[in-house]
Amino acid sequence: MRKLYIFDTTLRDGEQSLGITLNTHEKLEIARQLVRLGVDVIEAGFPASSPGDMNSVKTIAREIKGAVICGLTRAVAKDIDACAEALRDAEQPRIHTGIAVSPVHMEKKLRLSPEQVVEAAVAAVKHAKKYVSDVEFYAEDASRSEPAFLAKILEKVIEAGATVVNIPDTVGYVTPWQYGELISFLTKNVKNIDSAIISTHCHNDLGMATANTLAAVKAGASQVEGTINGIGERAGNTALEEVMMAVYSQPSLYGVELGVKTKEIAATSRLVSGITGVPVPSHKAIVGANAFMHASGIHQDGVLKEKRTYEIIDPETVGILRNKIVLSARSGRHALKHRLEELGYSPEQYDVETVYKEFLQLADQKKEVFDEDLHALMGYTEKERNS
Ligand code: KIV
Ligand code: ZN
């Protein structure tokens, strides 16, 4: 089993979400929690982009120990110089530099020939190597590039000293089998690929970021990039908590070992949502408020008999103290009896059929029946019985 490196870019690509701006203090608070969670790499920002970002990366590099601290740059010497300056006090610094490699980006955005792009990429990696030993190269829009050209540029940047090669699906365009095949192609066609770690970087435009990331891991990628709660440009980045729990659930399927403390996932999600002001949808996998709730009678009955019937993950594994049974008009007698017992009403005290009938009448008027409603219901039925 190889180690799966977790690269968190909540503070860089996540902050690129529309409407999010984080100050240095907020970024530091998130970075501290990411270390508690046990991520391997924290991408702290893009130092050349603004004085604020420069200051945040500098502060995180100085204060945060126990993870690689990474800064993003374009394949431009002055960006790389700024990044090196920002990372000067980091215990484990990494410069993440790169350039776009798809025909549309090279022709229309960069206005460079493929040869000029290779030249700029190699020069950027060599320049970054003057400052740090750990240099990651990103091939922007790799999923829409010519695979043979992608293989060639990766070979050249690894030769120049890149230790990690990032294969972004910048616009969230590919499917899991296409992305998996691309990674597999690179493992076979980049001669020196064993000298570098292959990294995934997926966007969620078609809702496939997590699936694409996992397909790439299965095909040989050993680093995954993403954000907490999946925040990021447009439809966001890969949600790291989803990848972590998918790998945690079936490690042998992917052939990798996960080093994070999964019990910190819920706290990390809450912190990122609170600080960024981006709410987590209630149905969001792993960290949504309903992710471990059971509402229908059949499901509630199953879970009460044996959790594994409808639960693939024990909620405590991600730091949620217990699963909740929501009592509603769809709940059965078994769920009601179970909750009443938890509230101190033993079945000998009441007639199940009478209480259940009244419970259903109440539940028809409300979405959810709370404990206070049950106490009131029990008082009412007791009075009625006594009269
Ligand atoms: O989506 C992307 O291609 C990126 C790179 C800059 C790494 O965020
Ligand atoms: Zn991105």
TrEMBL record:
Keywords: Amino-acid biosynthesis, Branched-chain amino acid biosynthesis, Cytoplasm, Leucine biosynthesis, Manganese, Metal-binding, Transferase
Domain of life: Bacteria
Residues annotated for Mn(2+) binding in this entry: 13, 201, 203, 237
Cofactor: Mn(2+)
GO cellular component, one term: cytoplasm
Domain Pyruvate carboxyltransferase: 4-266
Gene Ontology BP, a term: L-leucine biosynthetic process
Molecular function in Gene Ontology: 2-isopropylmalate synthase activity; acetyl-CoA C-acetyltransferase activity; manganese ion binding
Pathway: Amino-acid biosynthesis; L-leucine biosynthesis; L-leucine from 3-methyl-2-oxobutanoate: step 1/4
Catalyses which reaction(s): 3-methyl-2-oxobutanoate + acetyl-CoA + H2O = (2S)-2-isopropylmalate + CoA + H(+)
EC number: 2.3.3.13
Annotated function: Catalyzes the condensation of the acetyl group of acetyl-CoA with 3-methyl-2-oxobutanoate (2-ketoisovalerate) to form 3-carboxy-3-hydroxy-4-methylpentanoate (2-isopropylmalate).
Family listed: Belongs to the alpha-IPM synthase/homocitrate synthase family. LeuA type 1 subfamily.
Subunit structure: Homodimer.
The protein's name: 2-isopropylmalate synthase
Encoding gene, per UniProt annotation: leuA
